[in-house]
Structure formats: C-alpha cells, structure tokens
Task: structure prediction
Amino acid sequence: MSLYLGLDSSTQSLTGIVLEADRAGTRVVYEHSFAFDEKLPEYGTRHGVLTADRGPAEAGHHEGGARRSESGAESGTGIAVSSPLLWADALDLMLAKIAASGLDLSRLAAIAGSAQQHGSVYLNATAASVLGQLNPGLVPSLQLAGCLSRPVSPIWMDASTSRECEEITAAVGGPRVLAEHTGSRAFERFTGPQIRKFFRQQPAAYAATDRVHLVSSFLASLLAGRHAPIDPGDGSGMNLMDLASATWWPLAVDATAPGLAAKLPDIAPSWTIAGTLSAYWQARHALPPARIVVWSGDNPCSLIGTGLVREGLAAISLGTSDTIFGLMREPRIDATFTGHVFGAPTGGFMGITVFANGSIARERIRDQFGLTWSGFSAALASTPAGNDGRMLLPWFDREITPLVLEPGLRRFGLALDDGPGHVRAVVEAQMMALALHSRWMQVDVTTIHATGGASANRDILRVMADVFGADVCQFEVGNSACLGAALRARHADAVARGERLTWDEVVAGVVDPLITARLQPDRERHAIYVDLIRAYAAREAQALECA
Ligand code: XUL
Result:
C-alpha cells in the first residue's frame, strides 16, 4: 500500500493531504492546514498578502497614496505581492508536521502539488546549484534569499498591469488573436503582463533573472532540488502558452519581454515526474526519495479533486476567489472574453470564470454586521429568495469578472443598517454573477459540485441550487485543490510504473459526492432568479457604463 502526498499552497494557507492507495481503493489518511499569517507572522502578511510596509519598495509600490483594502492588497495601486520565501518556509513546516504524524512514510511513493495561479517567482543563475545543495540544518528561506532576483512575487490579486496588457494585446494583433492562442485575452493578473511590468520597471533585476517560475513550478523545484517544468494547466494562466500545442507561443513571449524565451521553464504534461525528493528534504525530515510530480494551479487541481473527469459537470469553488469551471474536450473560446480556457491535468481543457470578490466579500458583510457564520446562515434563512428587490454589486475589491478597477459596493434598495438584507444580497449577487458569466461555457448545468471553505454552508448552497436550477453536491474533503494534487500524485506514479489507471479509477471512492448532502433546487424560487438575473445583468452593465 503506497502513500501519496498532495500539497496546496493557496493565497492564505498551506494544506497537505495524504492518501493511502492500492488496487482495492483510495482513502484519505491525513489532512492538515495552516494559515500563513498565523504560522509565519514574521513575514507580516495579511490574508497571505504582504502589507505595504513589508513589501520592498519596488518602483511604484508606494506610489499613489496606497491604501490597504480588506484583502491586504493595495487598493490605490492595484499591487498585490507575497513572499516566495514564506511559501518555502511554509513547505518546510508542513513536511515537518507530516514527518511527525506517525504515518509510515517509508511508503510515500509520490508528491504532487497545487498552487495559487498566475503568481511568479524570479530566480537568478545561482538557483540551479543552490536548489540542489541546500544544507539540511537550515530553513530554506535563509539559503534561498540570495537566489531571488526579485524579493517579492506578484500574485493573482494584482491588478496593476493594464498598460502591459494593452501593449501585449496590440503586439500580437488584438484580444481575439491572443485568446485564440493562449485561451484568454490579456488579464492584469496573468504572468505575461506581470513579467512585462517587471522588465519595464526594473530592467537590471529582470536582466539578472535566469528563470521565471510560477508559484507551482517554484515549489516543485524546491522539492526536487532542481528546476521543474510548468504544466499546461498553470501554463495557460500566463498569456504566453499556445493552448493547442502546450508550447510557448513565440509571438506572445517576444511581445512580453526581451530574452524571455530563455528564462521560461519547459512545459511538460501534468503527470511528468520532475525528479525525486531532494537530499535536503530526505535528510531534514527523514523522508524517502519519493517521486516529485509536476505541480499545477489550484483550479486545474480542483477539477480532479471535485471528480470532474467527464464533460457536462460543473464545479463551483467558494474560496478567496470564487470560480466556476468544467472539463472541455475542445477549447471553446469565450466570445465575450470574460472567461478562460486552461489546460486540464487530464490532458484536455477546462473552461473557467474567476471572481475576485469571493470569501472577502462574504466576510466583510459578516463582520460589518457583527455576525458569526451561524448568524450569517440565520440571516439567509430569514430572508426570501429575491430579497424583496434589495440588491448589491459585491465589488469590495477590484473585480476580475466583470473588470472593475475602481472598487466599491453598489447598493439598490438596501438600507445601510439592513444586516439580513445585505447577507442575502451578497450571496445572491455572487451566485447570479457566477451563473451569468459562465454561460459562455455552454454547459447545461444539471449538477454542481461545490467546494471551497464556504461550500460547508448549506444555506449558501441552497441559494446556489435555486439560482442555477441545478442539484448541488457537497464533498467530504473540502479542499478539492489539495485532494486533486494528491490524486494527481497517485495517477502520475501509476503512469511512471506503467500501471494502467483511468481517471475514473483515480477519483473513484474518494471524490464521490455525499449523496446525503445533495441539495435540490426549488422550482418557484428558481423562476424568481431567472427574472432577477436579467435585472442583475442590467445593473451590472449600468454600473460599468458609469465607471
Ligand atoms: C484563477 C485565479 C484564482 C487563483 C486563486 O485564474 O486567479 O482562482 O488561482 O488561488
């Protein structure tokens, strides 16, 4: 019986899940999670984002009277950065914890990972040798600091690259051409525009950069002790990869920054073995030379962790960001350019739409009215579907879908002191936005697999079922990205050993929806939302026109 470790380095926390698997089945035998802010307070992050006083004064970082918004991101400049050394030290803490878990880790066969998408890590030429020669007596951050050509990593919450998006779009021949090749028009948080901004603002530091990693490939490199490739799932969040061939697209690479082609890692299938666990980790935590599987993004990993290995199903993840996604056999580009097509870890494609105002918006309303989560649920239960016409647009922070660069809540018929009205309005707005902006995927959603922290709240899921007119399933394991990573470790290990294992077999028994937890829509309430979505769309359009 082998063990498989999945890790998920998300915006705010690190999670580890260990699976035990044999021909008879797969079981979760260990799960642990911690928040970066709590476990590694010395980095000074807030919700996993470096606060203005801690992020080094990069060009523009402190300009414009930057003010921190709820997420920790700077609302004045749109800049959101974190620390690659924090992620490295978190990995060390997690492996120490797992090593002390009592599991027989001599059976650990493979490790795979999931990470927040789009974030980039900039390493100089010393990294290649330093990664392979770390001293097991010292924490990773102390040894890696000298390898960074940029001390901070821009993350997916960053919205400061509108200019670079325009420049790249113009250079490749417009948004349609870019979307047709890479799966998305240019987005501020995507890695290409971020790299271009770094090149433009810090040319010397860019020139000193030997390798640009994603968060996922950086952490895989750290485990393997050598530069690891990027997988097509995370590579498609860069505006640099040709989706159809899963190779770098030279036109976009050249439009992004000079000499970039030589600084990018290889792209390799998601089940590629990047190496074995390096001598550093083996000695530091008495771990075996397990296979290190290429890491992927959290959304591609969630596709596996919610069991979406067949077309026609959709999953909604309610996390720091809210996302809706599903598997696609053929890449169908979004004609409205709001969504993305990413590579799927199964080798196909996935459609996805991402909303920045996820848990942050829910928490803001909860805190504003002094509620606990059960108070939040009670408020939802005490208000009617449709909220008697009370509505809001939940743009506490800059929004990705639709693009809103000037954040701010827009209220309609909502009194400032109306707590229950606000609770229902924020959840209804989020669910209607998810429904509205996922139409381009052309998936007739009959069953939604719900995941992410807020998917534990059945009152929120009831609104989801009613808005979509679809059944909603919950899962036993809430962190589908981490579970997906562990299942990818299992799959890649089987491929490496020449064992035949289908994706259906990989997920069987572990990601079966909890039948008892299935929620069904109420037809009358659904009819209310069919009308309300039109009103919501009109208000959204109006707000965008006024912006
Ligand atoms: C996806 C995206 C977010 C992050 C969150 O495009 O920006 O979902 O991956 O971790």
